[in-house]
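User: I'll paste a sequence; please echo it back and then give the predicted structure.

Assistant: Echoing your sequence first, then the prediction.
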Amino acid sequence: MADSHLGFSAYNKVDQFGRNIIEEKVYEGFKQTIDKIIDDIHPDAIIHAGDVFHHVRPRIRTLYVFKKEIEKLNRNKIPTIIISGNHDAPKSSSTTSPFSIFEGLEHIHIVHNNEYQGIPIEDYVFHCIPFCLNNDAYLDEFSKIRPTGSDVLVMHGLIESIRDKRLRTVGEHELSDSFLKRYFSYIALGHYHNQAQVAGNAWYSGSIEYFNFGEASDRKGILQVDLDTHKVEQIDIISKYMIDHPPIDCSGFSSKELAEKLLNLCDEEEIKDKIIRINLVNVSKAAFKGIDQSNKAKLGSSALFLKIKVEYIDEKDKYDKQLDSTRLDEAFSRFLDEESQKDRIRKAITNDVVAYGTDVMKKAASVHNTRSLNASG
């Protein structure tokens, strides 16, 4: 498993206790995963290939949820290997890793602090390379591996052959395909959120949850791997709850026709407890603005989140189109990366600038979402 992103929150919809519903959903998915592993799978070992936490400084509730679940694994004496990823690893040596407070559990092996560690479990050695501060460091740490003939590699990053799947997140590193050695019995990768096989013996397990609409069609869950037979089984944990509708051509639609189309797509039972994006193209701005407010109020009341993305046929200024604010921080991160490459930001402070700036953008996106056409908020 990988990419739990505990502490992730979005869309500002809260439960009766004032807790962010998406954040609670992520916690619940993690709990369901651990319970399924203990009750149904009974593995010889567990790998978590990075990004346990969404932030390098998790809140108390996030740490508490993680603590409870790994203590379950420890009580059941299931050897568990966890590495840090780009989200939960400090970007400088002056910051303490959140994993430091969980060291010392007998059956839980956490590898962080940017250094390789080999962990023997039964007949295999698990070669763990956590998040490193720069790309060259991965090669240095990989060179420390001494193959035994029964080896598993655990890493976090984007394999170069799927570089088109970049997430554009802070600290995202590209890993060379040369790491995918055939002598490994299995290679467990984290970072890419879809379940994907990238070599005969190498898989991304993907994330358990959905974190943006770009993942709406992804396979979510965990992988059960038999190291003797090399069989990999995809295991679903949660039901699909994110829907990104294909674009709907609204050429010539009146306000009444637009309202009817939206109301038909927002059937309360079909969208209940789901995250929905409706994509309308070739829309008349006058027709969209003319939709009766009472019809707008009916939209998405039972959804976790409803977003209506509109592309106007009569819109010439691209900056006036609706912005997908859930990706605002990623766009900002890309911009700063480009500026850094042009030496407009000193490389020594780039990570800090990106981390601070993306946090500001996320807060801005949060405000934007509350003002969007969002009847579920």
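The chain has two domains: 21-235, 242-371. Confidence is low (pLDDT under 50) at residues 316-322, 369-377.
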